[in-house]
Design a protein that fits this description.
The structure is a single chain. The chain is α+β, with helices and mostly antiparallel strands. The protein folds into 2 domains: about 80 residues, Arc Repressor Mutant, subunit A; about 100 residues, Arc Repressor Mutant, subunit A, CATH 1.10.10.10. Strand 4 and strand 5 form a beta hairpin.
């Protein structure tokens, strides 16, 4: 398939799907290898950025998605219903951080780290589509495992979990000591 036709096919598939599509699946559609497919996708991305276009191509792990450029938001709200926004409380954000860095993780693991129940926070994160159930742990009671979603990556503007900031070891140790002290206070009561 010629390059321009292949790019047109990729654009049509991404537009129609609406969600992210794995690069391997796109490669099979245009009957090319992943390397060539990535090159074509990057050419599409460059054309969206070079021209005054309303869409962009974003990368999410080993997948890509067409999306509206953020500077077009003001025009979208004139025609579309205002999208629901959500705010993350400290509790929910703390729970999300634990899941992002420790995944796959169980509620019990999260509660051990936080020292309190996390049912509300986990339910909110599931509702916001920032986390998902990944399956069950092969252990007594078969607890549910949780991990982040592509919506998490989109919301925080990262392509993969590898782009999350590294935890400062000194600060991490301070947090651990603080959590242990809080847990000891609860036991002493």
């Amino acid at each position: 398939m010629e390059r321009e036709k292949a790019k047109a096919v990729l654009e049509a598939v991404l537009f129609t799907m609406g969600d992210s599509v794995e690069i391997g699946r796109l490669a099979s559609v245009i009957e090319e290898d992943k390397k060539v497919t990535k090159e074509l996708l990057m050419e599409l991305k460059e054309s969206y950025q070079a021209e005054d276009r309303g869409i962009d191509l974003i990368e999410l792990d080993d997948a890509v998605q067409l999306c509206t450029k953020s500077d077009m938001y003001e025009y979208l709200i004139k025609i579309a219903k205002t999208p629901s926004s959500y705010t993350l409380s400290d509790t929910v954000l703390e729970t999300l951080s634990i899941i992002a860095y420790k995944q796959p993780v169980t509620k019990l693991d999260i509660e051990r780290i936080r020292g309190v129940s996390c049912d509300f926070a986990v339910n909110k994160l599931l509702q916001y589509d920032l986390i998902q159930e990944l399956g069950r742990m092969d252990a007594p009671g078969r607890p549910m495992l949780f991990g982040t979603t592509e919506q998490f990556l989109r919301s925080f503007g990262v392509k993969s979990l590898d782009e999350l900031p590294e935890l400062n070891p000194v600060q991490f140790e301070e947090f651990r000591e603080q959590a242990e002290a809080e847990a000891k206070q609860v036991v002493d009561i």
